[in-house]
Amino acid sequence: MIRLLLFAATRFLVGGHPRWQGSEPTSRQRIYFANHGSHLDTVLLWSALPPDLRETTHPVAAADYWGRNALARFVSTHVLNAVLLQRRPKKGEDPLRPLRDILDSGESLIIFPEGTRGDEPLPRGFKGGLHHLARDYPRAELIPVYLENLSRAWPKGTLIPVPISCSVRFGPPLPFAPDEAKPAFLDRARQAVVALA
Amino acid sequence: MDPRFLWLFAGVGGILLVASIIGAILSRTVKSEGGRETVRNLNERVRAWWVMVAIFGIAFVFGKVVTLVLFGLTSFYCLREFISLTPTRPADHGALAIAFYIFLPLQYYLIGIDWLALFSIAIPVYAFLLLPVAAAVRGETADFLMRTAKIQWALMLTVYCISHAPALLILNIPGYEGQNFLLLFFLVTVVQLSDVLQYVFGKLFGRHKVAPRVSPAKTWEGLIGGGLSAIAVGAGLWWITPFTPLEAAGMAAAIVIAGFCGGIVLSAVKRSLGAKDWGTMIEGHGGALDRMDSVSFAAPLFFHLCNYFFAA
Lengths: 197, 312
Known about the structure:
Number of helices of chain A: 9
Strand content of chain A: 15-25%
Largest sheet of chain B: none
Distance between the termini of chain A: 33 Å
Number of helices of chain B: 10
Structural class of chain B: mainly alpha
Order of helices and strands of chain A: HEEHHEHHEHEHEHEH
Shape of chain A: globular
Helix content of chain B: over 70%
Shape of chain B: globular
Oligomer: heterodimer
Strand content of chain B: under 5%
Largest interface: A-B, 17 and 17 residues
Largest sheet of chain A: 7 strands, mixed
């Protein structure tokens, strides 16, 4: 119910039409990685997936924002099916543990490898988590996603979104080579998102 | 209920039914590549017409408030399309929020409470002055004039101009009380019929282009043939208006010419933004503004002609 209302409001404001350019929606395990420009990114990307895939696909959300109070925690974990990630983990703790748990169970993830929202339409440098996950879970397909216009509809630092049509573009799977250096891989991953812009 | 409404809706429904049947037959028989494209376009227009007639039926049954809400939503989608194609910056966010969340609802609310004087100046005066303030306080001066002008244009065309169509409902025309809905029907029928007939005549006889770079589909043959037919239909509808047949023909002519101008101006705006359809954001669907471009020019003109010559 809350989910439907949230989807309806999002569709009304920003549209969010999915475009599959080079990959198709399937139930095999995937890690979707996208540029991050607004608070609507998570809702929009997740709602662009077909309903049956949403059940087994978990957006990764920052614990300091989406877990800051009971309401935010309820919306993120119950409505959006999200897993919360500690951006500043305690010493000796693996911050990717909750993500690994999801992947171990065979389900899929949506991650925003920039780590935080950017001001520009194109993404900045990617953080290393994507590389760790890609290396440890070679069976998961890496799908680049570009969220068009969202940084315009709800720029960082503003209170409410304005209605601007956005689209969600899913690109072809990114191959992973175990012998490739981490910075080179992260740059290639970023380029795969940029190529969809 | 006024029996004329039933006759009108039955008539329009009948015409559309014939158009749909012809479209269905053509889509089975036409084989050439260009021909199929034309038939597909024609069928899309017919479908858009069915939707418009359905919306009109609903608006008519439920009255003024529903009509205002429906036109308000039309403005909303047109404004969204316009802004989506316009490259705005984060510093424009405040101005956009004011346009969407204050001036759009306000414009239709003012029609709802019959405040004609403020309705006429809310956007040209107050929005015009307020929007650049909202953008200026953000301190971003790059392309300031261009950015402000784009948002102002968007608001004028998609909200101010289109809102003049439902504003026909609040004109006080002596001897025509309670029938204003028919004026709105007259406007929309002539505008849309003119669009479709210009397209059909252009496809059948079009040789000489009016503005090949702006709008390659518009031809003189289409404009004259389609325009004259639409004027003839408008004159034939004089019995639902406060006009004599000659006056109805004159009004229809004004609507046809304004609608044509709206089509080429919005096409030029669209092309300067680098798009072919307003609705390119969603593949396979034309934009709302592609259907409302002629209304946005014809509605204010028709409103003011009625107000000047016929209203009390």
